[in-house]
């Protein structure tokens, strides 16, 4: 029995969530976004669970190579593209698809003299102002790459939605409209919808969708949880009680003594802290589950431990499991307690946490 923190990854939940994606966008191909170690869920194991996707999207070349090293031969798209001739040589050898979003990357492709052609996605900036070619520059880029000997014919096109998680966003409507007007007559495959776009903006579905956080059972919207869309949490973060102690009324608990017992209290000490990626800013009174019952954190999160008021779980004892988020306690709720977004929590678990796949 492990006494330290564990991230339990439910592969069946990942597959279920991919099925939800296909229900929302039945005519679209799915690029499953598994960058950043699959949002903390483990790159290769997550890819194997999501093997039914039409392609995988990763941010960087190293992530794509890690998948190839694990024997995964599926289509892989490098969302940030590459930046050197040597990188292009590797891309050609590994069969990666690349996103092109800068003039420097265009020049690299025009100068490349390898034997193979690269499969390219051109990224258009329709209002995110992060990566991509401005609308007025796109025609020249399209002409250059569509006629480039090192680029396969009919490059695909993508854009990224900046505010799709705001369901009444006029900015999103405008982005989708700009993208459609710009590229509709080219007759090539397009992609605009991230998780929020997929769930709330059907006009953004197009030929490809690019779900990320929803694959892991998490809602992309600040006002909801994944269960509202029939999504299942793929990660449950848990640990165990390593001590149970009596604290007398009026005594204080933890660093700074920020929690004071109003009466004699049973306090559980759980083996998890900010050294494991459990955020220090999660405040006193925030929920955890002990024996399936909601209990409250007592005082500050420390590096290796948290204290828990066991008033709601009077029968709790050393060795009992404590759930920090996941099954029974939505990570969206805990992100609100931490003053952040659920993406940061699931991506932030540290190397000290044991990861189990089920």
Describe the overall structure.
With 358 residues, this protein is α/β, with parallel strands linked by helices. 27% of the residues lie in helices and 23% in strands. The chain folds into 2 domains: 11-220, TIM Barrel (Alpha-Beta Barrel), CATH 3.20.20.10; 235-357, Lyase, Ornithine Decarboxylase, Chain A, domain 1 (Beta Barrel), CATH 2.40.37. The protein has helices at 11-24, 35-39, 43-49, 61-69, 85-94, 103-111, 138-146, 170-183, 195-200, 331-338, 342-347, and strands at 6-9, 29-33, 55-58, 76-78, 97-100, 119-125, 133-134, 156-158, 190-193, 208-209, 235-247, 252-253, 259-260, 265-270, 287-290, 293-297, 306-309, 321-325, 354-357. Strand 12 and strand 13 form a beta hairpin.
Distance between the termini: 16 Å
What is the CATH superfamily of the largest domain?
Alanine racemase
Helical coverage, percent range: 25-40%
CATH class of the largest domain: Alpha Beta
Structural class: alpha/beta
At the third CATH level, what is the topology name of the largest domain?
Answer: TIM Barrel
Shape, principal axes of CA atoms: elongated
Rounded mean pLDDT score = 97
Give Rg in angstroms: 24 Å
Can you count the helices? 11
Task: Throw out a few tags for this protein.
Lyase, Ornithine Decarboxylase, Chain A, domain 1; 2 domains; alpha/beta; 358 residues; six-stranded antiparallel barrel; TIM Barrel; eight-stranded parallel β-barrel
């Amino acid at each position: 029995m492990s006494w330290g923190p564990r991230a339990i990854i439910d592969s069946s939940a990942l597959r279920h969530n991919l099925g939800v994606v296909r229900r929302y966008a039945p005519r679209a191909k799915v690029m499953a976004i598994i960058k950043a170690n699959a949002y903390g869920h483990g790159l290769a194991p997550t890819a194997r669970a999501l093997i039914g996707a039409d392609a995988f999207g990763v941010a960087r070349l190293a992530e794509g190579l890690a998948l190839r090293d694990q024997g995964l031969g599926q289509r892989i798209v490098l969302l940030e593209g590459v930046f050197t001739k040597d990188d292009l040589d590797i891309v050609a050898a590994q069969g990666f698809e690349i996103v092109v979003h800068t003039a420097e990357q265009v020049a690299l492709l025009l100068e490349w003299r390898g034997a193979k052609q690269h499969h390219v996605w051109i990224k258009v900036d329709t209002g995110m102002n992060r990566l991509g070619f401005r609308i007025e520059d796109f025609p020249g880029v399209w002409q250059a790459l569509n006629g480039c000997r090192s680029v396969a014919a009919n490059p695909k096109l993508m854009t990224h939605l900046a505010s799709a998680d705001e369901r009444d966003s006029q900015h999103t409507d405008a982005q989708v409209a700009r993208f459609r007007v710009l590229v509709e007559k080219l007759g090539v495959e397009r992609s605009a919808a991230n998780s929020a776009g997929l769930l709330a903006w059907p006009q953004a579905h197009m030929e490809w969708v690019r779900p990320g956080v929803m694959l892991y059972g998490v809602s992309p919207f600040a006002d909801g949880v994944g269960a509202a869309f029939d999504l299942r949490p793929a990660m449950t973060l848990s640990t165990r009680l390593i001590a149970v102690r009596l604290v007398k009324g009026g005594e204080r608990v933890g660093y700074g003594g920020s929690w004071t017992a109003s009466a004699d209290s049973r306090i559980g000490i759980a083996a998890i802290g900010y050294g494991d990626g459990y955020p220090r800013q999660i405040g006193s009174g925030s929920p955890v589950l002990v024996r399936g019952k909601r209990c409250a954190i007592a005082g500050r999160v420390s590096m290796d431990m948290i204290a828990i008021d066991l008033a709601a779980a009077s029968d709790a004892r050393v060795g009992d499991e404590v759930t920090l988020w996941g099954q029974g306690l939505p990570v969206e709720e805990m992100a609100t307690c931490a003053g952040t977004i659920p993406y940061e929590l699931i991506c932030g678990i540290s190397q000290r946490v044991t990861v189990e796949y089920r």
